[in-house]
Amino acid sequence: MLEKIDLSKKMGKKEYRQIMDSLAPKLGALQRECRDLKIPVIIVFEGFGASGKGTLINQLIQPLDPRGFQVFAISGESQEEQMRPFLWRFWTKTPENGRIAIFDRSWYRRVLVDRFDKVTPDAQLGYAYNEIISFEQQLADGGNVILKFFLDITKKEQAKRYKVLLDNKETAWRVTEGDLKRQKHFDEYKVMNEEMLQRTDTDFAPWTIIEAMDREYAAVKIISAVIKRLEEKVAEVKAKEEARAEEKKSENADPQKSTAKPESTEEGIQDKFSLRSSILSSADLSLSYTKAEYKEKLKELQGRMAVLHSDLYRRRIPVVLAFEGWDAGGKGGAIKRLTECMDPRGYAVNPTAAPNDIEKAHHYLWRFWQNVPKAGHVAIFDRTWYGRVMVERIEGFCTTDEWQRAYKEINDMEAHLAHSGAIVIKFWMQIDKDEQEKRFKERMAIPEKRWKITDEDWRNREKWDQYEEAVDEMLIRTSTTYAPWVIVEGNCKYYARIKVLETVIDAIETRMKQK
Amino acid sequence: MLEKIDLSKKMGKKEYRQIMDSLAPKLGALQRECRDLKIPVIIVFEGFGASGKGTLINQLIQPLDPRGFQVFAISGESQEEQMRPFLWRFWTKTPENGRIAIFDRSWYRRVLVDRFDKVTPDAQLGYAYNEIISFEQQLADGGNVILKFFLDITKKEQAKRYKVLLDNKETAWRVTEGDLKRQKHFDEYKVMNEEMLQRTDTDFAPWTIIEAMDREYAAVKIISAVIKRLEEKVAEVKAKEEARAEEKKSENADPQKSTAKPESTEEGIQDKFSLRSSILSSADLSLSYTKAEYKEKLKELQGRMAVLHSDLYRRRIPVVLAFEGWDAGGKGGAIKRLTECMDPRGYAVNPTAAPNDIEKAHHYLWRFWQNVPKAGHVAIFDRTWYGRVMVERIEGFCTTDEWQRAYKEINDMEAHLAHSGAIVIKFWMQIDKDEQEKRFKERMAIPEKRWKITDEDWRNREKWDQYEEAVDEMLIRTSTTYAPWVIVEGNCKYYARIKVLETVIDAIETRMKQK
């Protein structure tokens, strides 16, 4: 989930002050509403050392009534705590209804610092993850709102911040030996964090990644996220209470139900300033190859791919290649260059259209299971199960619960594929809006390509921004170490096709070396 | 979950015919309703070899319209199937909406036969369980009804049935070498089954244990359970559809909502014939000791316990002893005899009354977490977290969802305690209704004991049958290898106190030997 994060996000001080002035009173008001509605709230801060947890927690609590929250700083277990199950100290700190508990580091210590320091043995990791997930699920089922923030900075930035702290006598003590050890082994420790994010990102307690290089940006993003989640929960609890009151009355229903959605604070800010982890917009679409470069590379790569394809078959390794992207993003062309060099008995291209009646009558993942490749075969999906969190989400073909649950369902499915031995790669074919328009028009002009463009394509284009938001969220929540997303910069078709081929070849070669 | 099952359950042929004649048309009608409401149904049969899966599935499908269901017999993977992730062959067999898929053995093979045969390596078990649970959860979330039956017979009965099959040339082929190997290592294989039941008994896909010694009894219990679950689901789906229709109308609500509960078929049979796994009623309450026997045993045991208590302290082993039972069942007396011989610095008795305001404002397990013992200490709970699935269930202090979810929550909590090193034992103090009345009256007659009896105690007594049903279900769902329930036959107080002491001493001594 971290791989795709753009750490260059920034906000000016003046802008920051302006936005915070409007957010602070909202957060205060929401705290009072949660108190009145008896909603317990748990806010967890995790992230790299010196990523600013302390400072940001301080900014979060400024607008809050101090009688209604408590901050817990979690370090190593005391002797007293070591004598009890590891969740004991967290269970006993869970908030009373209507109160907010803020954790500066948390139960995740067990699978992070304690794992790194070998306090948690590897054999205990599976247990620890199951126990953590069960703990959060129980609390969420019991009505708790759970927000989890992960503060992300680069290794270089961390080193810089540690140096500033160490250079000052007053603050040097704050950098521990453990901090320096983790700084030294930053990449190794990052892998543990990534695994933690992947395994514990659930619909009942999702992670929000915070780009924490710039503190103003981070503070605004955190507070906005808290406001958004509390607004949703308050609306949900109120709706339930009203429904219950309605039932109790059992007289004729009140015609003016307050089903109006609360005005979203986040959207207000979003208009002026993007708080999203924008992945797509940071793709460099100027990347390109000339026709000559393309031809040369293509020939060489297709030759290698042909050999690797038969290696795959001999070694019985299944491969799943998933293609998503904007309409006219170049999926078809890339798939064609890939399959041209492959033995047709060893691959299948599975186009995904709107589900037919039989498919609609099953679980949404069922139809993709039909086409899971055999060992040694390559299954290429032209559009995929990700429809659930894109078109189905945006067009309202499934409920909010359903698409929010889908991230974990999809991750579980891909984990199962990877765990059974498959190479799983997902491509997002990225083009910009102008390029799309150009391609649409080209297709309209060529009679034998005109069928590729429908009215629906033009309609989808109008929802570009909505799609972009959904895709960004999808890329973060489902880019895993075992099934990564690859953004293919596609304005130049030559470049895109080569990148797809290179990525597939790299992945296969890496696997071949493993065993 | 198997340990407490009473395998002596039987039903006469005549009774069976009568009941089946009334059940069959109901099942047929429910199948049609599920088809119309587009509810997909998954029914899984697992259990020991020769426990009658084939015969019972045959009886289940008799009343069904053959166009609406399919039976899948699951044996080892074909070559084709081996080349795909292990869930692939099950995903592709999931039923279309409105249809019923019946599995004669299932995905559980992976953690049962394949585990026994070492086809599934131990290192893969954790993955397999997580993948199975995720699979069932996804299907349940997607609207599938999932029923799982486990057919239980004794080792002896299995041997007898195999012999009958082997003695006949026509049927001998049905007993495989694998069957005979598992028969030989029945107890070892049973442990794997028990672990499987414990780890996969969830609120969205619960197990029903079927006493399968008597085929008539088993058939009726299975069909009743299917009817009950489908009735519930049909009612739930209809209620949702009505609510949706209601919303759409958005005119004044229809005052006669059909919120009437469907008449339960199971209750009808239950009146005439108990289908419950009755654990409490099979306790032998005639067990007793004379006063002289009691005194002698008590002295000896208390002496041993005193020594063991300091051993526990030295070895830093925490102990959790949970006491539940009927009012006046003798909890207090048994706890007193236990603590008399213990160092007061090393134990605490935690009485559990109705929750206070602070406790009510937290998760229901929170208050018990406060009293989790330190390593080396003994925590005794006089009434416990099991209130959730007894009094709170029966008095409606929590919702059906909440108490059904609680079995897993409680099992998870106890697993966490046990996994952190604690000995966990749960006692159910069993007396009969007459004995309770006698004790109530005695207490009323003795001024210094009168406070122990309240009007509520007399009221609870009237709900004896409801409690017994809830307790039986609780005992099955939460008796685990890591935290077993011990039924204490308590009509004779002397006997009960000695059994409690003996059980605790046994458990500690066993642990001492382990390391």
Characterization of the model:
Two copies of one chain form a homodimer. With 515 residues, chain A is of the alpha/beta class. Chain A has two domains: 13-248, Rossmann fold; 280-514, 3-Layer(aba) Sandwich (Rossmann fold). In chain A, 53% of the residues lie in helices and 12% in strands. Chain A contains 22 helices and ten strands. Chain A has helices at residues 13-36, 53-61, 79-82, 88-91, 113-116, 122-141, 155-166, 169-172, 177-184, 186-200, 215-249, 265-272, 291-315, 331-339, 357-360, 366-369, 391-395, 400-419, 433-445, 455-462, 464-478, 493-514; strands at 41-47, 69-73, 100-104, 145-152, 207-211, 319-325, 347-351, 378-382, 423-430, 485-489. In chain A, helix 9 (177-184) packs across helix 10 (186-200), helix 13 runs parallel beside helix 22 (493-514) and helix 14 crosses helix 22. The two termini of chain A are 27 Å apart. Chains A and B meet through helix 6 and helix 18 of A and helix 6 and helix 18 of B. Chains A, B: This is Polyphosphate kinase 2 (PPK2 family). Chains A, B: Residues 12-233, 290-514 form the Polyphosphate kinase-2-related domain. Chains A, B: One of its GO terms (molecular function) is kinase activity. Chains A, B: Residues 241-269 are annotated as: Disordered.
